[in-house]
């Protein structure tokens, strides 16, 4: 034992200390074990890739959404315009219009505030329509809407949102039951036509710079509609179907997220408006417990209580208990922090 | 050559002196670091060819299998990175490499979880191995993050759905302000640069910790008294377990 090592006497704690191994050492070829493991993994991976491949379902675009379900698109666009959509009332980090999730007085989303500002009316509707400067009817409607009072805007959009639920799409045009919607009908019809041409996708991506890798705006716009969620539901991906741990098709997905997803299926999180924060907090606590289990009395005794270790080390215990020795030198076991290294010559 | 003193289980001083180089260089920081490293992990301890007799279970294979799978994950990810994020959507070869990447991740995570629970039921933190356990848990957590950002970087329907669902959980903690799951560019960089570096570093530390402390010994057998109240617990000067 080196000079800086000293002995300290204290009781042996079976869940904390390990006995010194005085027994025999046997040949163990780590390099060979690694190579065999690597080859087996390669064969397994190649076999699974050949047989099952990997999913690659086409992403939804604003164009495909408005083409395949123009009424849902028009409804969503109207709620983005008047600020009643899910995103418009979300809160941080997108805006200050919503109530951040909280546990008691703690609402962490508020702490860092708005970092990805989104004004749904301007970003999703009025902004893209501004890319049509040569359409005087649309620009007149934009100007009329912008110059109207907030209460007037609300009257128009509320009436439109009720009516658009009964809209049809005929001969390439959105047909909404007649009513007093002010310029809103013109705006949403133009927005729908622009979306179906792919113009809204382009407007949302190129709004800041030529090169772009941030899809926050188009993704959040698409997620506000029912189209994406309906497609996901058909692919067993919605929240009640254990949600995002799955992936399209019959693939294992992120099975390791099972515990995180589980909490969304049980009360009170199942129906709570603060479910995300509650589940995240719970997972942080459980993860901390797992990481710190060596320090937690009771938890660190579970392996000894379950006795599964006897299955893992069954040969060792068979030898010890059948032959009255552990194959070691017979010296009394000591609790130690050190591990003997085999001597080679 | 005797590397380890059979009486103390520590490296032979003569060998350490030889490895230390010239005596006049002993004060060099470089020489000190080398000496400390060689003392802590001499070659036979770093890459042993013997293991205690109790290391005889299939459960021990899963640690090595996890590393083998990690190498396949990194290799296939390297090929995907070589040709860019759009390649696998438009090329059958690219799609196959993506499939290899996906299944290697599945096997990596499977092997890691089996390894983790195996070590849990062996109470592998016993005997100054707490840091080994904790680095293992951190490796698992970072791997979950790496896999998650991989799903977000696929540029397909799965990415769209997972990102728009996951944003609520991330945003609720406040982390959404700086970790935007709907920002493809940010998620891709986390997936192919930051988190792989973290995984390799933490797994490397974890493996070194395993080699430093060795494989945990079994719980004492029935009738085997590990010293009782008077047991002497050897502790280094740097760390005292009380």
How would you describe what is shown here?
With 345 residues, chain A is mainly alpha-helical. Helix content of chain A is 48%, strand content 5%. Among the domains of chain A are: 62-228, no CATH class; 235-293, no CATH class. Chain A contains 16 helices and six strands. In chain A, the strands form two sheets. Chain A has a two-stranded antiparallel ribbon. In chain A, helix 5 (120-129) packs across helix 8 and helix 5 (120-129) packs across helix 9 (199-205). Mean pLDDT of chain A is 88; it is low at 1-5 and 326-345. Chain B is mainly alpha-helical and 242 residues long. In chain B, helix 6 (92-121) runs antiparallel to helix 7 and helix 7 runs antiparallel to helix 9. Chains A and B meet through strand 1, strand 2, strand 3, helix 1 and helix 4 of A and strand 1, helix 4, helix 6, helix 7 and helix 8 of B. Strand 3 (25-27) of chain A pairs antiparallel with strand 1 of chain B.
